[in-house]
Amino acid sequence: MNEPLQWGKPKLFIKDLGTLGAKWKKLPTPVQDSTLLTPRKGDKMEAPIEGGENEAVKYKRSKYELAYGIRMAKSRKPPVPATDGVVKNEYAVLLQPEDPSTNGFYIERSAVSYEDPFNTKDGGIWNVLHDALSPESGNTVKWGVVDTSTVSGKVSFTEDENMVAEDAEQCILAAEDYE
Predict the structure, then answer these.
(1) How far is 148 from 134, CA to CA, in rounded Å?
(2) Which of these, 11, 57, 112, 132, could form a disulfide with 96 (CB 3.0-4.6 Å)?
(3) Chain-centre distance for alpha carbon 66
(4) Distance between CA atoms of 110 and 113, rounded to whole angstroms?
(5) Which of 98, 90, 106, 37 is nearest to 68 (CA)?
(6) Nearest to 162 by CA among 137, 179, 140, 145
(7) How many CA atoms lie less than 13 Å away from 96 in the CB half-sphere?
(8) Which of 31, 42, 26, 35 is nearest to 129 (CA)?
């Protein structure tokens, strides 16, 4: 039996955390093959002993970056307001895979920046980068089902209980209307 896969055309939603009452904003479909979540393994700490062996090894938390490109068009505004790529507020971000029954992810807090290159193949593109920041609790990147089919166009996120600590409960996050 084939299981559904997470690849394909994702839907991205962002929310300005610095604006009171901000709603989730659905972004245009990203430029092909530009959406990429990159984990960077945490720093390795070693406790060496005589002879060069390690008595213990410990890793710090991983860091995550989400990158995607949004093509400029006549009617489009940049995905986030910025001055020369510098974004003032923090943002939450949700990614829903093409198959909405598979796990997407939720980044509760991120620092955002972007560059706006131009080439003759793609035209102008906003290359957006979300540096994930430490959340109030739990994993920096929370994996689970992103549901945009609820009543009134609401967005909800249910964390995958297999992807979190055993004592964590399933929860609904980010259930506001989106633009």
Answers:
(1) 25
(2) 11
(3) 5
(4) 10
(5) 37
(6) 145
(7) 20
(8) 35
